[in-house]
Write a structure and sequence with these properties.
Rossmann fold; binds D-glutamic acid; six-stranded parallel beta sheet; four-stranded parallel beta sheet; 10 strands; single chain; 281 residues; alpha/beta; 13 helices; globular
Length: 281
């Protein structure tokens, strides 16, 4: 069924399974504060990283449609798992029916584009959810972009999103899981000089990650690259830019209790957040 979507200009939507996309929102708003934004976190159903392709696609599809119904013209999947497992299907199967003038963009492509300039050895480590790693999306994009010049060595980190969603990212318990995964990755390929945080939750574990990574290895969160890629996209697509409202507002929605979301999001963003509850189906 074709949904009835608002036709007037609207905000930029940013979606994530939970809190992780806030690290993307923060960078995007820092670079382009003039636009209106709506953030939607599916906290009630996070984490996505251990779920099947079909489930991640269905959950992401519901969230993107809801953001379009709220008036968004453009939605950024601020989640690697959703970018890896749902982006292409939404672009190919859903957007043409919903409204071909709207756009959904992912965050893997801009990250891969950036990493070639950061690594000197050509050996890039990737830490991400099991879903992102299993999809092979980073390797596929890197091969397309660099041929064999940049090698991606990956390590799935199944517990890390849960540590963040459950506010354990600074606790002593987090050390065990972070040390284990960083250690595995660097043992696997000692030539790695760059580690991509291929999950938007992971910047919240940065203190722990730095603690277990040799100083000469660069840790690269994606937010900055996603933000500059979006700015570049909007410079090249006036038809989309003209459809974005510019009131510098940001609304927050979560599928969980707003109280939980508010207290965590306020810490993550450093500003007071008041979210509303949304039900997805
Ligand atoms: N922030 C999501 C990502 O970038 C985490 C996915 C999850 O919920 O496991 O992959």
């Amino acid at each position: 069924m074709t949904p009835q979507l608002p036709t007037n200009p609207g905000p930029i939507g940013i979606f994530d399974s939970g809190y992780g996309g806030l690290t993307i929102l923060r960078q995007i708003r820092g670079m382009m504060p003039q636009y209106d934004y709506i953030y939607l976190g599916d906290n009630a159903r996070a984490p996505y990283g251990t779920r099947s392709f079909e489930v991640v696609y269905e959950f992401t599809r519901q969230a993107v449609l809801r953001l379009f119904e709220m008036g968004c013209r453009l939605v950024i999947l601020g989640c690697n798992t959703a970018s890896a497992k749902a982006l292409r299907s939404i672009q190919q199967n859903d957007l043409p029916h919903w409204d071909p003038t709207r756009r959904v963009l992912g965050i893997i492509h801009p990250t891969v584009e950036a990493m070639g300039d950061i690594t000197h050895t050509g050996h890039v480590g990737l830490v991400a959810t099991p879903g992102t790693i299993r999809s092979g999306s980073y390797e596929i994009e890197a091969e397309k972009h660099y041929g064999g010049r940049v090698k991606v060595v990956s390590e799935a980190c199944p517990m890390w999103v849960s540590l963040v969603e459950n506010h354990e990212y600074d606790s002593p318990g987090a050390d065990y899981f972070v040390e284990k995964r960083i250690g595995n990755l660097l043992r696997h390929d000692p030539e790695i000089d760059t580690i991509i945080l291929g999950c938007t939750h992971f910047p919240l574990l940065l203190n722990k990650i730095l603690k277990y990574t040799p100083r000469e290895v660069k840790i690269v969160p994606q937010g900055e690259y996603v933000a500059s890629s979006l700015r570049n996209y909007l410079e090249r697509h006036a038809e989309m830019e003209n459809m974005l409202t510019k009131g510098s507002t940001c609304q927050f929605y979560t599928t969980e209790q707003p109280e939980n979301f508010n207290s965590s999001a306020t810490i993550f963003l450093g500003t007071t957040v008041e979210a509303e509850r949304v039900y997805l189906e």
